[in-house]
Fold:
Amino acid sequence: MWCCGLKIIDASGTPAYNNETSVNKQRNGPALSNLKADYGLATEIGNSTSDAYGSKISSITRHKMRRLRWINSRSSKSEIRNLRTALRELKRLSAALGLPQETQATASFYYRKALKAKLIRGRSINSMVAASVYLAARKHKYAIILKDLERYSMVEKKVIARNFRTLLKELNIKPTLTGPSDHIPRLISKLELSHSTETHARKILEQARKNKLDVGKSPMSVAAAAIYLACLRTGERRTQQQVAEAAQTTPVTLRNRFRAISESLTIDVEVRRGAAAVPVFFRPPVKLGREAMYDEY
Structure:
């Protein structure tokens, strides 16, 4: 759009109807993106023989600019090529894990810092991307575990864990601790449980935390045990195998956790077997006109 003889680049996508609105909506182009190798800006040293005022540049300055242009092309090409490969893998991995945009940007930021610190040398790009994603997810308290990254990145979890520790040490980053409550929404969604069961599970976790029953235990296994106990209370039955698979742990670990919690908190549980243990799924009511239809399976 044009205003007062000047071209204003409007990246907001909405029109301006007067001069004041145009000034407020003035942009220098699209916003910088951490998910692009060059941040969305392509910067190069030009071949001009004159400066900004139109004066001729001396031969010594032209030689320096030519040298800087060659160094910039050599240094930026390898870094940009590495970033493009890494960001493609980051977007693919983020899509598989359902990571929000903010977490993706943070993972890109950590990978760029590792690239500048020359931590990528001797390590695969995919493994460092997975470690950056895990670090970003921990920072934003997005519940993912190493087994998820191992499954979608095709990199062994011990390699991801080793690179994760390298990022923490070399970049001087303090890790953000995740608790069992951070894994509750994920397990509730996977097991298709109601809000009532989620509320019961959070109450059980609060009591378990007060009694320090989660110290030294995997947060995911403690969350799975709380959800299993909540299911027994609300009547939304799920088998131990189902809960263990959702938490990517073993039924033995799940039994040990929920028995320890139930005994310490004196929670009476009745573990059904056989036909009585068949899972029961509840769906929320769907209103059709003035009536509500309930589907129960």
Observations:
- Residues 1-13, 283-297 have pLDDT under 50 and may be disordered.
- The first helix runs from residue 19 to 24.
- DSSP finds eleven helices and four strands in the chain.
